[in-house]
Design brief:
Layout: H1 5-14, E1 22-25, H2 28-42, E2 47-51, E3 64-67, H3 70-80, E4 84-85, E5 95-96, E6 100-104, E7 115-124, E8 129-135, H4 142-148, E9 153-158, H5 166-175, H6 180-199, E10 202-212, E11 218-220, E12 224-227, H7 236-239, H8 249-256, E13 260-263, E14 268-272, H9 275-287, E15 294-297, H10 304-314, E16 322-329, H11 334-348, E17 355-361, H12 364-372, E18 378-381, H13 384-395
Parallel strand pairs: 14-16, 16-17, 17-18
Antiparallel strand pairs: 1-6, 2-3, 2-6, 4-5, 7-8, 7-10, 8-9, 10-11, 10-12, 13-15
Helix pairs in contact: 2-3, 5-6, 10-11, 11-12
Length: 396
């Protein structure tokens, strides 16, 4: 589950991470009120207006702008709220902006020049350890840094059983070239950031940039936070931060029905039981000359109601030109699945795309007879290659 920047900062602040303070607003007028309140609380004269969407690269799309007075705050917020923000991480249609974060200006003059760093905490699946990735090249796309100047990216692996040790936090500060007050501030920042990552059951914390201010304070100017969905039952307060407007509406609907669904860009809908078989089915579709339109795991209970719900979800995608149902009957009996497909087809009555059904496992022969004798426009298959050939035939 992704969080908005302002939500991520609230979470970080609760664990003692210094943040760029801000107030979220849903209208231009509310943005002006937020700016006035922020000035009273922090003394900031300028304000940064940031679009709140689940996508990176907001500045490149015109979603982050500096306002030097209240008139500019109102004008900029009014232009950003309601726009479809297109960034390198969105589709061509972009994402609609429903709210902005009015933040304090932290690039104020002082004894030293402000400096920006990149920092993230995530799991290194290869080693089974958490990893702090950081760089002196803050404010840039980390992918570009990794490609052009990989020697400027550092990593610090943390054993989950031991936690982040003091010398590791100090090594991060040292590798970033810090000293004095800034060095001490960075060690505190890193320790608090790692604690926030672990305690919130996150799968990613990304801060870009981490800022060293002109008076040597270390703070998070941005935040990208992804929480582990499987751990949300332990964090009901965090689960309430979910913004369904930012998610694919079909995936949200499928989730509410108990279906594991991921929307893709292809033309062949998949209905499968089991994640491994679903991945193999997607490969099968590609080998047959098609492209999978979705990942859909109906689970072990593939009854008529569940199959009908899956049909409706798949057919919401206008790009779907065929549907491949691939079920292995281990726990569930194939004849029950076949009857479920038949019942669902008859109940819907308006399925206009070809359907290929491959049922293998318990009572597969009975299931094939049910499909073949149903009188419906449904093609049955028993072997993987046979199913692939039939997908290829209907696409051509």
């Amino acid at each position: 589950m992704n969080l908005h920047e302002y939500q991520g900062k609230e979470l970080l602040s609760s664990f003692g991470v210094r943040i760029q303070r801000g107030i979220v607003a849903q209208s231009a007028k509310a943005a002006v009120d937020a700016a006035k309140q922020l000035t009273a609380e922090t003394g900031t004269g300028w304000h940064v207006i940031k679009a709140q969407v689940h996508a990176g690269g907001r500045g490149k799309g015109g979603g982050v702008k500096l306002a030097k007075n209240l008139q500019e705050v109102e004008e900029i917020a009014g232009n950003i709220i309601g726009m479809n923000l297109v960034t390198p991480q969105t589709s061509a249609e972009g994402k609609k902006v429903h709210q902005v974060l009015v933040a304090e200006d932290v690039y104020y003059p002082g004894d030293n020049e402000p400096e920006e760093y990149y920092m993230s905490v995530l799991l290194n699946r290869g080693t089974g350890k958490n990893m702090i990735m950081y760089s002196t090249e803050g404010g840039m796309d980390i992918e570009t840094v990794a490609e052009e100047t990989p020697h400027l990216i550092f990593t610090e692996e943390v054993d989950p059983a031991l936690g982040l040790l003091g010398f590791q936090a100090r090594r991060v500060a040292f590798n970033l070239g810090l000293s004095g007050t800034a060095f001490k501030e960075m060690t505190k920042f890193v320790s608090a950031l790692y604690t926030a990552y672990v305690k919130s059951d996150a799968s990613l914390f990304e801060i870009n940039p981490v800022l060293k201010t002109s008076d040597d304070k270390i703070m998070a100017v941005d935040s990208k936070v992804t929480l582990d969905d499987n751990a949300l039952y332990r964090h009901r307060d965090l689960a309430e931060m979910r913004d369904l407007r930012e998610e694919n509406p079909i995936e949200v609907e499928a989730g509410a029905l108990g279906l594991n669904y991921v929307d893709l860009d292809g033309n062949v809908g998949c209905m499968v039981n089991g994640a491994g078989l679903a991945m193999a089915t997607m490969d099968l579709i590609k080998q047959a000359g098609g492209e999978p339109a979705n990942f859909l795991d109906v689970g072990g209970t593939a009854d008529a109601a569940r199959v009908e719900a899956a049909f409706k979800i798949i057919l919401k995608d206008p790009a779907v030109k065929a549907i491949l149902i691939n079920i292995f009957g281990g726990i569930v009996r194939c004849d029950r699945v076949a009857q479920g497909v038949i019942d669902a087809y008859k109940n819907m009555g308006n399925i206009t795309v070809p359907i290929i059904v491959r049922l293998q496992g318990t009572n597969a022969d009975i299931a094939k007879d049910l499909i073949d004798n149903s009188g419906l426009d449904v093609l049955s298959a028993t072997e993987f290659q046979e199913a692939a050939d039939k997908v290829q035939a209907v696409l051509s």
